[in-house]
Amino acid sequence: MVRDVAFGQYFPGKSLIHRLDPRAKILMFIAYIVIIFCTFNFAALGVTVAFTALYLILSRISPKFYFKSLKIIIFIVIFTSLLNLFYGTGDPLWQWGIFKITLNGISRAVFVSVRIICLILASSCLTFTTSPNELTDAIERLMKPLKVIHFPVHEIAMMMSLALRFVPTLLEETDKIMQAQKARGADMESGNLFKRVKALVPILIPLFVSAFRRAYDVATAMECRCYRGGAGRTRMKQIHLSKRDVVAFITLALVIGGVIVCNIFVTSVL
Amino acid sequence: MSCVLELKNLGFVYGKGTPFEKRAVDDVSLTIEKGEFIGVIGHTGSGKSTLMQMLNGLIRPTEGQVILEGKDIWEEPKKIRSVRFKVGMVFQYPEYQLFEETVYKDIAFGAQNMGKEGEELDKAVTQAARFTDLKPELLQKSPFDLSGGEKRRAAIAGVIAMDPEVLVLDEPTAGLDPMGREVLLSQMVRYHKERQNTVLLVSHTMEDIARVADRIIVMNKGRLAMFENTKEVFRRSDELEQYGLKVPQITKIMQDLRQKGFDVPEGVLTVDEAFSVLVPLLKKEGKLW
Amino acid sequence: MSFVSIRDVRFSYAQEGEQPVVNAVDGVSLDIEKGEFIAVIGHNGCGKSTLAKHLNAMLLPDSGSVVIDGDDTSVEENTYTIREKVGLVLQNPDNQLVASIVEEDVAFGPENLGVEPSEIRRRVDEALKAVDMYEYREHAPHKLSGGQKQRVAIAGILAIQPQCIVLDEPTAMLDPSGRQEVISTLLKLNREQKMTVVLITHYMDEAVLADRVVVMDSGKILIQGTPDEVFSQVELLKKHRLDVPQSAELAFRLTGCGLSLKSIPLTQADCVAMLEEAMR
User: Fold this and answer.
1) Which overall architecture, per CATH, does domain B35-60+74-235 show?
2) Does the beta-carbon distance from B84 to A181 stay under 8 Å?
3) Element (H or E) spanning A261, and its range?
4) Which stretches of chain B are assigned E, i.e. beta strand?
């Protein structure tokens, strides 16, 4: 079922990674994306893989959940690595018709899949260890400078956190509506494309109606709890940079340095 | 009487083979006769909802069989849709499934999926609307313009229009006010009487169950704890309390009187019944005219 | 002056310029004292929810006045002081929880008020303990039961530290054990913390627990008084198709046949005692 997906979930905990400043985590995640696409040889890739592994271990979240998050993208990994496998240049090691496998193809396939896997693992690590509220709070603070150009920073952060809160509720609701329509003989599994799209109407209309009704209710509840926009709000969970975050930044800096050194001095197999 | 529904060692495990495996229904066997009005009670999480969803094939049992009119409903999985027309299922808060432009079209949705059309369809819709007291002029309105109680009844009519042999109602009165509850309940009783089919009513309101059910299914921790006639079930109030269930206040009052040595019968279910029991007793004492 | 003073309030949902067809609230006057536990009962559409929304300035009366602790709700500057004093809990527990973690949700109110972070922490812990949900503080709301969700919603209001809590059919969507959890939480708050509670409900067994019961019909107050006084009016309640406890109904019908009673029994024990006495 859709509800069992681990990706994007938060697991409360007290690990080192949990306690990092969410702003630091977001900035590091952005830097990490850049690094992962700037690894040009296996040595550099190895450094980033080691760095990723270190973080996953420090997060103290069961590997089971990381595997679960990989399960969803396994097809993307296989597809892109196959694509790369057959599009390599150089002398073929094996050939059948237009399909040929080269050493270059193999290494490209490995590179692509390792990159994707690392990316998913790192983003899982971020969402597993950071509560949605912390995340949106951090994004709100990081984007604060944009307020100068009248960018609705608080509103967007609030929207994000409400969306995250109501995703599971709406999934559950979709499930219920589907069951109810199936009980009235709605057929969602057969027929041509047009028929199938039409079969979605009895699901989507009640879902929209209910989402609007909920939105109205939520707005009322928020007003009852004295909500009046971002001005003058405080937060229970204060976030501030601590020594931990500095250490984390330094580690990241070292990894960046390592990747650069590897890229330059280790001769590439590519 | 003939048996309409038979459950044989029925069981269901959620997420079988995963770390989140959870048993919801365990070895339930029972038979329901045609024309019975059955009450279904059980604490939240007792497995009663899962059990109900197995009756019309929305959930496929992991063990055992559901036998409808002598045939295992999963004998031909491709034909499971036809089972859903025979066992009509009204979910909790059914008004949230309304979607058509008019009430009429919404009520017709299920019957249309069965292949009914023309006059036959029209008859099914108008009859279902009559059972739920929806006035003809409401039928051309948008379902979203109806009042809360009317929406609920329109949604129930949508299932009744399929003319099912067995009608399952999952807490049809949840969230309604006392008057709405009363009206809906008497409509269901009238429907059952006129149609002579089988009705299963899932409810937390014991007073309602006591009034309408012939027999009661009591579920506890996924198992069938009791399946007896209504008087017998409410007579065993201590056992029900162990399952986190209550008996109607009036039943309890009469039971207490009996324990104190008064000559009152067991399993009194309604105020009417208690009244007719007490009047002669009080007359004997010279307390009444 | 009473803590809440409602004077001849009229309200209709008609749009501006339209002539109101019916008033949802039609001339209601009611005083609520500090520390009282009041139950408001009546049919859907009798105006009880509309009245509830007047108590925290979510709605403003078309005519008449609502004064909370000396502040008139129709004065705009009072809106937020009033919402700090009177918290409103709604029917659907799902739609009141706005954060993905229980404790962060409870913190939402005080955060809006700009309370100091350490003070918010203290209030959140206290509120969660008051509703007995402290162990669930790090859980996701959507994984809780209905009764638990509704208790978190109550904690979310408690963290604002109101003097009065108004609940609009908080048990309508709950199962019996969830209802029980919510009602005993409310009784505890009322008895131990002297919280003023206004409970709007369909369930008579909840209403009999209140100090005072107000029955509404067609936007007006039909009767009010102690549960004993109100539920002894079996005939009137039945005429308006409202429920009465089965014990009261039985006793009422027996009095119709000549049985003389001091008062109408509302609970099982009272009813048994009454019948025992009559038959001895």
Assistant:
1) 3-Layer(aba) Sandwich (3.40)
2) no
3) helix A243-265
4) 3-14, 22-33, 37-42, 63-68, 71-72, 87-90, 166-170, 198-202, 215-220, 223-229
Q: Which residue has the tokens 């017998």?
A: B232
Q: Please name the member of A131, A162, A226 whose beta carbon is closest to the beta carbon of C98.
A: A162
Domain regions of chain B by residue span: 35-60+74-235, 248-289
Phi/psi for A253 (5° steps) reads: -60, -45
- Name the closest residue on chain A to residue B15, using Cα atoms: A1
Q: How high is the ipTM of this complex?
A: 0.90
All structural domains of chain C, each given as residue ranges with its CATH number in brackets, are 4-226 (3.40.50.300)
The two three-digit tokens of residue B218, written as one number: 């009591």
The verdict on a CB contact (< 8 Å) between A184 and B19 is no
Q: CA B128 → CA B161, C11, C36, C37, C127, distances in Å?
A: 5, 38, 48, 44, 49
CB-CB contact of B69 with B4 (8 Å): yes
Q: How far apart are CA C148 and CA C152, in angstroms?
A: 6
Cα(A113)–Cα(A171) distance, rounded to whole angstroms?
A: 30
Residue type, C98: V
Strand boundaries in C19-176, DSSP class E? 25-32, 37-41, 63-68, 71-72, 86-89, 164-168
Question: Could you read off the pLDDT tens digit of each residue along chain B, which spans 289 residues?
Answer: 589 999 999 999 988 776 678 899 999 999 999 999 999 999 988 999 999 999 999 999 999 999 999 999 999 998 899 999 999 999 999 999 999 999 999 999 999 999 999 999 999 999 999 999 999 999 999 999 998 889 999 999 999 999 999 999 999 999 888 888 999 999 999 999 999 999 999 999 999 999 999 999 999 999 999 999 999 999 999 999 999 998 999 999 999 999 999 999 988 999 999 999 999 988 888 777 6
Residue C164 in tokens:
């009065």
Which chains contact C through at least 3 pairs of Cβ atoms less than 8 Å apart? A, B
Structure tokens at B126: 């108008």
Q: In what order do the strands lie in the sheet with B37-42?
A: B87-90, B166-170, B198-202, B37-42, B215-220, B223-229
